[in-house]
């Protein structure tokens, strides 16, 4: 039997994650049946579960994949840029991402086993945000009267609020100035100095 290349395996895994993201976003965790996952990915259950042990492992991998993508944006451009991308619809699969994010929130509230498994994977965004803020603090761009951990929690709460707002179908067209205010809230003010993205 010919050996399958790593590129082929990676491509297949990406195909499963992208199809599953749409399925979970549309139907929720319980509604994303194996049959629906097969339809969304275009693959058989054998192919799907060759890459992922079970549906929960697939969902956790998907949520982790989204968290890693967000953490990459945070590391380079800041957490407010993640929010701006959501408003602009520039993030990859924005509607499906929102659905997955809401499903993660619901399961964290109702499923202790999921909460324990997710806790192991959910730190990427917090770590990326804190590290970015620490770099901004060292550069003198952050206010110094509030601890970096408090600023990190503040920005994550704003992100969660924005996600909830958009997921409820409320308009986001006029929220750009709100995000400007969020950035100004955590920035150190120096007369005449231009601000830096947080």
Q: Terminal Cα separation, in Å? A: 52 Å
CATH architecture of the largest domain: Orthogonal Bundle
Q: For the record, what CATH class of the largest domain applies?
A: Mainly Alpha
Helical content band: over 70%
Strand content bin: under 5%
The run of helices and strands is HHHHHHHHHH
Describe what you observe in this structure.
The protein is mainly α. The protein has 2 domains: 1-52, Arc Repressor Mutant, subunit A (Orthogonal Bundle), CATH 1.10.10; 55-186, Tetracycline Repressor, domain 2, CATH 1.10.357.10. Helix content is 74%, strand content 0%. The chain contains 10 helices and no strands. The longest helix is centred in the N-terminal third of the chain and has 26 residues, at 6-31. The termini are far apart.
Helix and strand topology:
Blueprint: H1 6-31, H2 34-41, H3 45-51, H4 55-77, H5 79-88, H6 94-110, H7 112-119, H8 123-138, H9 148-167, H10 176-186
